[in-house]
Amino acid sequence: SLGDKHLAFIAKRFLEQDFMKDVSKAQVFKEYGYVYEDEGQEKQGVIDLMLVYPDKVVIIDYKTYDLSDEDYQNQLASYGKFAHRAFNKPVETMLYSLEGGFKNDGPSFK
Question: Is residue 47 within 8 Å of residue 92, measured between CB atoms?
């Protein structure tokens, strides 16, 4: 069906992105739930896709199209802080537009 073809196109385009080229070298976590404490406050969330490489962590948050909401950057910052503490590696974060096929980089943690 047309819907299935569109979903296949979106998946194929995502998997062909530069940031996915070394995915075979990563531990892949999908819908990764976490809880941690930051400055006395409990933070929690669910990371859409987290790729843990030997030397870094890449976090990808999917959105349907629009990536401009300021809250998305705050969300990425929370994900990145958690992953940086949990894995003790540099972390890159990004938003990815499923319909648009483009990404916006988020905060990184060294």
Answer: no
